Amino acid sequence: MERIKGVFFQDCDDLLVELETGLLALQRGERDPEIVNTVFRAVHSVKGGAGSFGLDPLVAFSHLFESVMADARASRLALDAEVVATLLRAADVLADHVKVAREGGEVDAARAAAIGKALVELTSALPYGGAESEPQEDALLSIQSAPAQATRCWAMRIRPHRELYAKANEPLALLRELRRLGEMTVELNDDDIPLLDDLDPEQAYLSWTVLLHTAQNESAIRDVFEFVENDCDIEVKGESVNIEPAPQTVALAPVGDTSREAPAVRQTVVGAATETAIEPSVKAGETIRVDVERVDRLVNLVGELVINQAMLAQHMLASGVAMNQIDMALEDLDHLTRDIQDSVMAMRAQPVKSMFQRMSRLVREVELATGKQVNLIVAGSSTEVDRTVIERLTDPLTHIVRNAIDHGIEQPPERLANNKPAQGTLRLSAAHRSGRVVIEIADDGQGIDRERVRKIAIERNLVSADATLSESEVDNLIFLPGFSTASQISALSGRGVGMDVVKRGVQALGGRISLTSKKGEGSTFTLSLPLTLAVLDGMTVSVGGQSLIAPLTTLLETVQPKAVDVHPLGANATLMKFRGEFVPLIDLGMLFGYRTEPLQPTKGVALIVEDDVGGRAGLLVEEILGQRQVVIKSVQANYRAVDGIAAATILGDGRVALILDVNAIIASQRQGAPLADQRRAATG
Questions:
Q1: Looking at residue 426, what is its pLDDT?
Q2: Which of 30, 59, 189, 558 could make an SS bond with 25 (beta carbons 3.0 to 4.6 A apart)?
Q3: φ and ψ at 649, to 5 degrees?
Q4: β-strand 512-518 against 522-530: which pairing, if any?
Q5: How far apart are CA 251 and CA 242, in angstroms?
Q6: Chain-centre distance for alpha carbon 342
Q7: CA distance 23 to 493
Q8: What domains can be seen in the chain, in order of their start residue?
Q9: Intra-chain end-to-end CA distance of the chain, in Å
Q10: Which residues contact 586 (CB under 8 A, 6 or more apart)?
């Protein structure tokens, strides 16, 4: 049962996303009836599933929410801005109820009661259970069974399919829902139960005949069965009449026959007559739920397959034997391995939509805390990236969004005084570019006051008073630990914790973060991240007899240095002229201790690379061995952190090759300190 309940909560996550997506569309002014129906169905499905597991507080609150959406569907309630705002707050409370039902704890009772009361005031339906009374906090969280005043009798026959039970649905929960609509009598039909020897425990044999006296209409009765309508046969007739046997064309699948699906049934109620027709079932895209650990294990195994395929190709090349058929087979194996790897990585890919949806709630919470007005615009939410990247990026993105509203967007009076709309705009976008995913967070706020930033950095001894900094370097001071422009500590900011965490979190994902800002017009944070943390496209180079991997995402160009372009600077530094500018030339062999004598620049190859803040350098190597996709292995998890090394991989000949950390290498050169000293300084 706990496993089945876990599936229900996973479904709740999807339903809550649908709910919030629909409400945000309504907030933007869209009034497509299908959007309203989607919101209603999401809440109704949460309520129905919660009822199956006896999650009474969740059922009670979702019933209030559902009643409001029922009025909206029936055009009894206008979805103006104030109503939609209430529904968005109700969606937050509904999410809290789901979280508490899953993890334990308590919902904020005062908040839930306030939102519940607001929902009761919006709807013309009776409170949960049909009790006509003033909305009290206890009434919002309790289940009552007082019937509504009956004005009509409805006769129903309910016959479940085996699929209803397979999906963990319970007919008793449906009957309880019907009971809340009015006075009801139920008759069980067990004539179809076979002898024990012929009994299939997974088949459905029971059916029920129900007489319901209620003031509700036929639509309200149908709504009870909405989330199981394809998993059972339902007949509904108005007035008190006998129900004829179900038509022979509407039959359950034979016992044990799982090769075909039960047909979908369309029913039209006209007075006391029921017309039943068979519609061809439409099969949507099918999905299955797979344990994440199984997918991770599959990814690891495919990684080993890639390594072994590379080893085999390397051994065949080293043998020097000309075997055309084997060569062709190896080439086919290479393509097949890459296809398998791409398919497996696609299994781990998820759209960033789920992460962006969380930001919607965060924006509303920060709006309430700051008194500001923010319009959140989301673009590219279908962009896919590895699920691990999404999980580890949520916290950094939360910090950026919170700071963009708290520090960037002005209060409405200030915006109006500066000829801006009272409501600020925050834009989240995602897109694939050059084999990476780029996420941008842009606001139209006040931008960065560089003079103030520089002054605060000097006061906190983060930079020296005589330091010469470019605009980009001043902007990036906000990423230093302990830096904050907040004038006072609040629940949102002021403690100097946040943006340094953002930068470390993004860099830990192998990503880069940059900031552009214009005073009075706003700021834009740009995050460039790898699509996956499992594989990497890199350039293999030879340095001092060792093989190193330079990530292609950091590589701009490769050049053969000319003597006229190389200029010594001081005792140990060297500059190289590259396309009209000078870049530092870093000898990787000397940097990592592979050689004791520096390599003559004209006898090597320079890799022109760029770090996350746009800094460039030339990495001097002996030879380029080729481009390849490699499987990433953590050095820190298997050994310890190594300065200037981001990860490792296994080459086709079985040797371990280190993957360069370009950001750390350029930072070491820029600050004129060895890599080890940089790490000690960063860790205090």
A1: 93
A2: 30
A3: -150, 170
A4: antiparallel
A5: 20
A6: 21
A7: 29
A8: 2-140 (1.20.120.160), 152-246+264-279 (3.30.70), 293-349 (1.10.287), 352-530 (3.30.565.10), 535-682 (2.40.50.180)
A9: 50
A10: 617, 618, 619, 620, 665, 669
Three-state DSSP at 51 gives helix
SS3 at position 516: strand
Beta carbons within 8 Å of 617's beta carbon, 6+ residues apart: 583, 584, 585, 586, 608, 609, 611, 665, 666, 669
Beta-bridged to residue 375, according to DSSP, are 425
Q: In 10 A of CB 137, how many CB atoms?
A: 14
Span 168-187, mean pLDDT? 82
State how far the Cα of 602 lies from the Cα of 649, in Å rounded to an integer. Answer: 29
- Helix intervals (H) in 349-470: 353-370, 387-403, 412-417, 450-459
Question: Which of the pair, 331 or 355, is modelled with greater confidence?
Answer: 355
pLDDT digits (tens, 9 = 90+) for 163-176: 888 877 778 888 88
Q: Does the pTM of the predicted model rise above 0.85?
A: no
3-state secondary structure of 379: strand
Tokens of residue 305, six digits: 């397959």
- Consecutive H or E run containing 428: strand 424-433
Tell me phi and psi for residue 188, to 5 degrees. -85, 135
Say if CB 442 and CB 400 are below 8 A apart.
Answer: no
The answer to whether the beta carbons of residues 16 and 98 sit under 8 Å apart is yes
Between 256 and 654, the higher pLDDT residue: 654
Residue-wise pLDDT for 60-71, tens only, equals: 888 889 888 888
Return the exposure string of 489-528: e unless at least 16 CB atoms fall within 10 Å of the residue's CB, then b.
eeebbeebebbbebbebbbebbbbbbbbbeeeebbbbbbb
List % helix, strand, coil for the chain (3-state, nearest 5).
45, 25, 35
**3-state DSSP call for residue 595?**
coil
Q: What is the mean pLDDT of residues 187-214?
A: 86
